[in-house]
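Dear Dr. H.,

I hope your travels went smoothly. While you were away I took the liberty of generating a structure for the chain from your last submission, since the lab meeting agenda had it listed for discussion. I wanted you to have the full record in hand beforehand rather than looking at slides cold. The sequence, exactly as received, is reproduced here:
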Amino acid sequence: MHVFVRSLIVSFLLLSSLPAQDAPAADYYAGVYRLSGAALRSALHNLIDGHTVVSYDGLYTAFPSTDSKPNGKVWDIYSDIPGGTPPYEYEHGLRKCGSYNSENDCYNREHSWPDSWLGATNPARSDLFHMYPTDGYVNNRRSNYPFGEVSNPTWTSMNGSKVGPNTAAGYSGTVFEPINEYKGDLARSMMYMSVRYFTEDTGFTTTVATNKSELLGWYAAMLYRWHVKDTVSMKEIVRNNAIETFQKNRNPFIDHPEFAAEIWNTSAAPVIGYVQQLSSTGIEIDLTRYVDSVSVVTAGNIMVDKGIGNPVSVQWGVNNDVSKVRIVTSPLQPGTQYQIQLKNVKSINGVAMKDTAVFLKTSGVASVPDGAVPDGFVLAQNYPNPFNPLTTIEFTLPREAFTSLSVFDLQGRELEVVLQRRLASGTYRLPFNAGMLPSGIYIYQLRSGSQELSRKMMLIK
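The corresponding predicted structure, in token form, is as follows:
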């Protein structure tokens, strides 16, 4: 559970260079906001139920719209290498399976929620939100295994997808692990299926990971961890929009990632996912859970140091996401680190968060002006340092590249992958919470393209 919580804290990142999500119609989610638990699941089901059905043969016709890379090739998540060169690629409509003996023979239609789990029932077996075009041989090796996490693979694909015994808590059987960059995509597909076919799963089977459309505890916990660790990408946003043109429904967990916590993590307390400066007087704080308006929308419960004091005003909810709050303060100084203290916060279903503090460094001399290209590849010293347990890691990229940020112990063991995605040039600040780590010295390492930098940080409890 501790790794799950730490992942939750570090993974809800708002990176300023990432494109804003295309919003669905303004009233699409009317009636489901601010619900939690079974009430939210039922409301979402009713919203996305009764979609326009694409036939099984029609999937190949839809894939050029839903699953094309920028170069027009098939976006096969089982062979793609984000930021690198894939071992092979397919053209839409060419080399559809048939038979196959190895990778790069042909591509077919992958049921990310296996067809045998569905009982081959319609319309679930051709629902585009869980169907992906993938290499036929890798699809076959995946078989009907659940997704999972593998340390000792019995088989590995050319892009690093693996088959082997599961190491995620709760199940030790054989699983299939996709690469990290697509774990969130697949988790959100599983969440969609669980909600879309809620109460409509008579033909579904019971498996090691599911009870008809219900995600079993171990599977839900792992998928939720993937969901918060691999955040929504532009690929998913484009895919969501494209599928809507065919099916006339959407995946709620792409449009509103916060919905997932309110269904599969309702017993967890709010935690600070990120804090970001909006203006010289505006700050936004993500608390990862829907929070109670009475406890949060009280300026007396929020305190900013360096003489700022309580906010002038507090807004509960941002674009109908009531896991976020925006505060207005007296003017903040540029290039200054502030500590923001929060108390008496609880989730909408009454789970209390411990009084806590988060750090915010305002933009200033060290930041990159809008439109400017940074001079070089820089990994700054985390701040504060030493820290307990929250710190911020800042880095600058001179050009667009696939980038990763990881935390290691002094023995070189990777403890946390904080970030893995393609980023534009710019300066980024990421929060890291080491609440479940013992005191000591740790190394954080930044890799971007062919460049690599590392620094040490000290945790003192």
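Two observations you may find useful: The first helix runs from residue 2 to 11. The chain has a mean pLDDT of 88.

With kind regards,
E. W.
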